[in-house]
Give the backbone structure.
Amino acid sequence: MLFALAPADTVAQVLNNPVIRHEFTADPAALVHDDTVFLYTGHDEAAIDGDFYRMNEWLVFSSTDMVNWTEYPVPLSVGDFAWAKADAWAAEVIERDGKFYWYVSVEHGTVGGKAIGVAVADRPTGPFRDALGQALITNDMTTATDISWDDIDPTVFLDDDGQAYLFWGNTKCYFAKLKDNMTELDGPIRVVEGLPNFTEAPWVHKRGDWYYLSYAYQFPEKIAYAMSRSVRGPWEYRGILSELAGNSNTNHQAILEYRGKDYFIYHTGGLPAPDFGGSFRRSVCIDRLHYRPDGTMRRVIMTSEGIQTE
Ligand code: FUB
């Protein structure tokens, strides 16, 4: 009997997605500091039969190969914001002038609705403390939609001229300038136009002369993106970047360049039995991202193998 050799692309590799397996992680954000990647996530704690998010804290991990991750003590939780009462939803950290600012989504304790807070630390792993003692954005500050959960999913971007911007939203995508202290808005809140089927999860990054605004599209969520020559727009929609995240009805992406390679960091419900991942038991995954010569991004292929060590 003859046996055909397996084609090279079916040779078994280590299955590195999801990248964290001992707990559930969602809503990734990442930055590079001192040639090390710091991965920030939410922490899904819903029971197997849970039917909504149970999220009380955020987590931080580091890596120098995108495969092996070191976890640190819990750096920030809802309880660190005296004015907040629940829901450690999506967040992002940025470094400016040697300090690390962590913009988070939470449920406000008195104003009602979701709100955005900011914490600060001297190191990427914390400890972080509330930088303001009150919310930076509350639901009554945004009126483009009636929903109470439109002030979530902050993404922060520092432009080449030193001007920082905060983008966030659900259903509507908002943006505003930040003062140099990173804890106050510097001007009006505006609505970003040109993002069809915007749901949530904006992420702004720059490569060369192009600015990119990726976001969760429709519901269940795909990731789509737009491009612009200015962070203030106008934005031109450029299509779907990644497809549905399997058994998770949300997705949430971070885009990172590290040591000359580009990465797409996202979540799925992909932890198998006995953990049984799902929409409220999500896990961060990482795959390579590739640009075309004209700056557009190729569709990301979500894989079980993920990133392989070289
Ligand atoms: O994790 C809670 C919410 O689900 C996030 O804020 C959204 O981006 C979605 O992933």
